[in-house]
Design brief:
- A hairpin with a 2-residue loop joins strand 2 and strand 3.
- By secondary structure, the chain is an alpha+beta fold.
- It is built from nine helices and 14 strands.
- Helix 7 runs antiparallel to helix 8 and helix 8 runs antiparallel to helix 9.
- An eight-stranded antiparallel beta sheet has the order 2-3-7-8-11-12-13-14, with helices on both faces. A three-stranded antiparallel beta sheet has the order 1-9-10, with no helix packed on it.
- Helix content is 34%, strand content 22%.
Length: 345
């Protein structure tokens, strides 16, 4: 669930410091977007399957690594630790909820002299998606999002027209400057949020640590978004089910056999501002409102950062335009409209 408030305050805590209630609440939300089949794993020796879960990015990261034999399982456990360490390191850089992160410093000061290479890379990737989506994916959406969240927290109301217009004037991805002096925001009151791309990037980087250590048959899932590397058995890819955005009727809208691909889902149900899901956390930076078309968008791509960002963009785009973009990029997508019609690309 790519645009969930992944870098929430829970993400600043270690797994050990999470209360049991908070941990169970996060676990309960973690499988909303996808379901993972276990049939292939049941036929493997238990000693060859290494599993670990840890609270990161305001959700629970679940890792499954298939070792080649019992002896390599010990090395797989070390690789899993390296994966989680890398992900936690990047969260501390990219999370706008950690006061010491580089994103927080940029948002507070409007400039950052020595940006981390990972932050620069994520912003470059985000700007590419902004261009591809005609500006409908925009990491400078933070002032508008913060306005809605403030009104919602104050009693569930929505911002006024004048408030929305004022916030929209502070949103423009082209006003983020990267040069020899570092990073800067062009106007006072601007801010960035990487919630729609950073989780994917962080998981991609974590999977890279596993692959570097010789473990290519892996599944890393974070809050319903996932990377499925290799296969879960000799003759079977990873069986992934995409869950319905509404708790009615069939639980799964489709099942996929995935090998060396990533899946991310955005949905109107993840942070709704109205009980009918008409207004939610995925906002059009041009109009200041949520699109009335889609309930969810699932993207299958080679990298989770790409799937993460494109799924966010699709929730704002008109469905025909979104499907056209997906085809142009050579990706796959499942869109669910508000009336539960399934559209595929």
């Amino acid at each position: 669930m790519t645009d969930q408030n992944i870098f929430s305050t829970e993400g600043t805590q270690s797994a050990k410091r999470l209360s049991r209630r908070d941990f169970l609440r996060i676990v309960a939300c973690a499988g909303i977007a996808t379901w993972v089949g276990k049939a292939g794993l049941e036929n493997l020796e238990a000693e060859r399957v290494v599993r670990q879960s840890q609270a990161l990015m305001g959700t629970v990261v679940n890792l499954t690594v298939i070792a080649s034999d019992r002896r390599s399982a010990a090395a797989a456990e070390v690789a899993v630790d390296a994966c989680l360490e890398r992900m936690a390191e990047l969260e501390a850089i990219l999370s706008r909820f950690q006061e010491s992160s580089q994103v927080s410093i940029l948002n507070r000061d409007g400039r950052l002299k020595t940006p981390h290479p990972a932050l620069l890379e994520v912003i470059r990737q985000a700007q590419q998606i902004s261009e591809l989506s005609s500006g409908l994916f925009d990491i400078t959406i933070l002032p508008l999002l913060a306005l809605y969240q403030k009104c919602h927290a104050a009693g569930g109301g929505l911002p006024t027209e004048s408030e929305i217009e004022a916030a929209c004037r502070k949103v423009d991805y082209r006003k983020v400057t990267m040069d020899e002096n570092g990073l800067s925001l062009a106007e006072t009151g601007m801010g960035i949020t990487l919630d729609g791309i950073a989780k994917g990037y962080i998981v991609d980087q974590g999977v890279g640590r596993l692959v570097e250590r010789g473990f290519g048959n892996v599944l890393v899932e974070a809050g319903g978004d996932l990377v499925a590397g290799g296969r879960q058995s000799f003759d079977r890819g990873w069986e992934i089910g995409v869950q319905s955005p509404r708790q009615m009727g069939e639980q799964l809208i489709t099942r996929l056999d995935v090998c060396n691909e990533a899946i991310a889902t955005s949905g109107d149900y993840m942070q709704p501002f109205t009980i009918d899901f008409a207004q939610h956390h995925i906002l059009n930076p041009k109009t200041g409102r949520s699109s009335p078309a889609l309930a969810s968008a699932t993207v299958i791509a080679p990298r989770l950062a790409l799937a993460d960002a494109i799924a966010t963009a699709l929730m704002v785009m008109e469905p025909p335009k979104g499907l056209e973009l997906v085809r142009e990029l050579g990706l796959r997508a499942l869109l669910v409209t508000k009336d539960m019609t399934l559209l595929r690309a």
